[in-house]
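Minutes, methods subgroup
Present: GH (chair), OT, SY

1. OT presented the first of two proteins processed in the latest run. Sequence and structure tokens recorded below as shown on screen.
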Amino acid sequence: MRRLPQRLLPLVVIAALALAALAAAASAAEIGARAEIGSATKLVNRSLKALVALNDAPPGGIAIVQRKGERRHVIKAGYGNLMPQERPKATDHMRIASVSKAFSGAVALSLVEEGRITLDTTIGERLPDLPVAWHAVTLRQLLHHTSGVPDFTQDADFLAALAADPQRHFLPRELIDFVADQPLGFAPDSQYRYSNSDNIIVGLMAEAATGVPYETLLATHVYTPLGMKDTSLPSESPMPEPFIHGYDALLDPPEDVSTVISPSGAWASGGIVSTPADLNRFIRGYVGGRLFSKELRAQQFAFLRGDSDPPGPANNFAGLAVFKYPMNCGTVFGHTGSFPGYTQFTAASRNGQASVTVSVNAQIGPGDGKVFNALLRVERHAVCAALTRGR
């Protein structure tokens, strides 16, 4: 082996010292990043524990925080099942409620990308048997909740039918029939109004455009491309095992309502069952642009003032089947939802590299006062923990 010339030895020593300094700096940065996320997730942990400790609060909750290039952090509090007592897990099933609307958006926009339908396709063109008064409403307006189509879940006859038989199996078209005799609530695009009917019609238009059942479209256009293996759209109330049990927290003791109501009454608007892990995977891909082009995403990300239901952790702005939540620590995009026994929030940074999912096992909303405010605190802490490095 040849010896280095004497004159090069100082240069070698300097290079070695420089490399050692760089390695030390990188190591310090990694340690700092771990400490940073550790501190941020401790806030999520404390706020989640504070939530479930309140009176009339969900028995349990689980939050997933994932930052750019990092493994996901799973934070749990309370119980996903009270009898026997079991902690919620990231792989337990749960009802995702109105987050299902983001899935209908994913299907519809994927079909737009394929040229099977356009954002300006009207109800009359694809579903001519629906009320003539609705025919000029477009797919874009349905996804934006600016359609004016009346909400079937506010209809007295629907509520009476559900009360009389909570296990009743509704066909999607039956849901729309409850309001088919009603005019539009306002001229399309003249205002924003959240309506569960919108996404039922989106699902029906997707079927009409393809001749394929909506459940199959979910599998081919969402679950498979995003690697989701624990998500489905059941038509009956039994839940796949294992699952996070949903409770009516206002009763003492809380009553398990996980399977009391048939999800067929929500269908594309709120009937999907998933897991916290799968939901986190979905929102990263959906918001991050893995399902359709940058040009189509630009149209999806045209926002107007409008609340999700329940409202999210900051001022709410509605895009096409997605909401924007701008906060001091950054902006995320996602959706919320509630269903008897469950309340959901999932969101991601625009590049999809930072994400958060917060799931609790009771239905709560703004009318629940401090319990709802405590949930918003959990969501805010989780968002800021995810965005610390992941914007």
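2. SY then presented the second protein from the same run.
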Amino acid sequence: MQGESLKVLVGPNLMGLEQALPDLQKSFPGVGFAHFHEREGLAEAIANADIYMGWLGRAEYLAARKLKWVQSPSSGVNAFLAIPELAGGNVLLTSASGTHAACVAESALAMILAFTRGVRASVLRQRDGVWAMYDIRATQVELTGGVMGIVGFGAIGRALAARALAFGMQVVAVDVSPKEKPADVAWLRGIDGLADLLRISDYVVVTVPYTGETSHMIGVPQLALMKPTAMLVGMSRGGVIDQHALAQALRARRLKAAALDVFEPEPLPAGDELWDVENLLITPHIAGGTQYEAQHIIAIFRENLGRFLRGEFPLRNQVDKTLGY
């Protein structure tokens, strides 16, 4: 494919992806690059773009008359696949899968440690100037010897497993399409192993993408299988965990604690019941934040642009729209 006629548009994003445009222009001199930084007016700006990197809605997508390929800045692509014409059409969609593995794994562990090492309890008491040494020490536990259950064993799940093993934990995992098991992981099974994972895990971390198959895959029946001393952590996309069922389980102390970085919907509405659940830690979809984020995404885009121009398909992280990832 000839690059001379191609136009690449970088849209609104949180990572500063547009900062890489001068370098990309040097590497691909025959391609035209542009940046449009606001959602308002994006439909007009994208009209003549062949390639788009950034977030967009249905109106912007329908305005993109020449579009051939969309590069998502995020690992999850359910928001893109919610556009019927994109999901059912021939425009290529690639994700940033792998970009956020280390930072999301670290965030999941940070959420767990916030509870197990008394950090969250200390912060809450700090506001009131309370020295609660004896109360907090009585609740502290080590991760050593605990069982980490990972639901979704892609790049994030594998990064989390490596870190959990470094804490002396036992790791078990399930995945929609399980691939090669690392030697130190106790077992890796298909989703049919989810019930066993929930029964034995002290910490369950959910990292599966949101698809029709994974929608509310952690609901009332699944939560009932977990130990009352266990903790649930949601890191991938809102909608995978049934939030109302989780709130009920936490309030009834059928589950010791939970932490969520992703929600359905987002932002989480001010009056949502989750805000008032005492043993729940809420973070506002920040787990993917890292100083390397833009660097990793641009590396994927650079590789894919080269492949696209040479006609080498599939592209890296090319989404199978029927599977949703």
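Chair's summary of item 2: The first strand starts at residue 7 and ends at 10.
Next meeting: continue with the remaining queue.
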